[in-house]
Amino acid sequence: MKEQWSDKLFHTINYTALALISLICLFPLYYIFAVSFTDPQEYLIRRAVLFPHQWSIASYKYIFSNNSFIKAFEVSGFLATVGTFLSLAVTSAGAYVLSRKRLIGRRPMMLMILLTTLFNPGIIPPYLLVRDLGLINSIWSLILPVLTSGWYVLLMKGFFDSIPDELEEAAKIDGCSDLGIWFKIVLPLSLPALVAFGLFYAVAYWNTFFSAILYINDPVKRPLQVLLQVLLIESSSTATANAAETAANQPPSETLKMAAVVVATIPILMVYPFLQKHFAKGAMIGSVKG
């Protein structure tokens, strides 16, 4: 079927608009990348750098030689790995229990979980809870209060509802317990769901910022995002009286900030391509049967 001129015009305008929007979205990322690899002396002269004439990794060397940055990187890595594992365990276990139709009080529990997605308690009640539990200035204060999400539990429950009941009945006949069914049958079949929610949890833990400001007082226990904010404030408030002397002692603050942003962003960007095929399958979790 021959394409009409109006359709060609529409596709041309559509593709052109999408290309412009893509360039607008990608330009800040490119600028951050370019400035982070710009030679310090060149940046002090040019300032606005779109393509460096001299590439340098001086900013990255300075960052990784900073013990506080390495420690913050380790804290964020701990949150993203341990926190994601625990969150997936709690979320999948709760969703599996709610998906069992023989559970007594199933509907009231689902209603209470649903209420947590509709009403936000604010800042004070969670802080009082963390304080009374003795978790102030503890890394676990960044994990336990956000260990699971009611919305994720309900979505994963919808995925578990799509698993045939005959599998559970056959496992029961073979003498498998409920824990064995969840661990040996349900979880392997739920890999797309686990990957999708695992990516959500990992990004949330990696980007932990506001809760760390509330609960963490020790600078050694601060995650990477808080350290980036401190670096931004310090570099903005520090006057560079002698630019040449500053460049000799350390790279300019702007190149340091851009390098820190790149280092904080790359780990999540590297994880996504390996999870993409599972993530595409899990994106429609709970949309058909809930």
Characteristics of this structure?
transport, single chain, disordered C terminus, MetI-like_sf, mainly alpha, 290 residues, MetI-like fold
Structure report:
Pfam families: BPD_transp_1. The chain crosses the membrane at residues 12-33, 75-98, 110-129, 135-155, 193-216, 258-275. It is a multi-pass membrane protein. It comes from Paenibacillus gyeongsangnamensis. Residues 73-275 form the ABC transmembrane type-1 domain. With 290 residues, this protein is an all-alpha fold. It has one domain: MetI-like fold, CATH 1.10.3720.10. It has helices at residues 5-36, 40-46, 58-64, 67-98, 106-118, 124-132, 150-161, 165-173, 178-189, 191-206, 210-215, 224-237, 243-249, 253-282. Helix 5 packs across helix 7. The longest helix has 32 residues, at 5-36. The radius of gyration is 25 Å and the shape is globular. The chain starts with a helix and ends in an 8-residue tail after the last helix. Mean pLDDT is 82; it is low at 239-245 and 286-290.
Determine the mean pLDDT. Answer: 82
The CATH topology annotation reads as MetI-like fold
The main pleated sheet reads as:
none
CATH superfamily: MetI-like
Overall geometry comes to globular
N-to-C SSE series?
A: HHHHHHHHHHHHHH
The helix content is over 70%
Low-confidence residue ranges: 239-245, 286-290
Could you tell me the strand content as a percent range?
under 5%
Rg computed from alpha carbons, rounded to a whole number of angstroms: 25 Å
What gap, in angstroms, lies between the N and C termini? 41 Å
Number of helices: 14
Name of the CATH first level: Mainly Alpha
Number of strands: 0
The total number of structural domains is 1
**Structural class designation:** mainly alpha
CATH architecture label name: Orthogonal Bundle
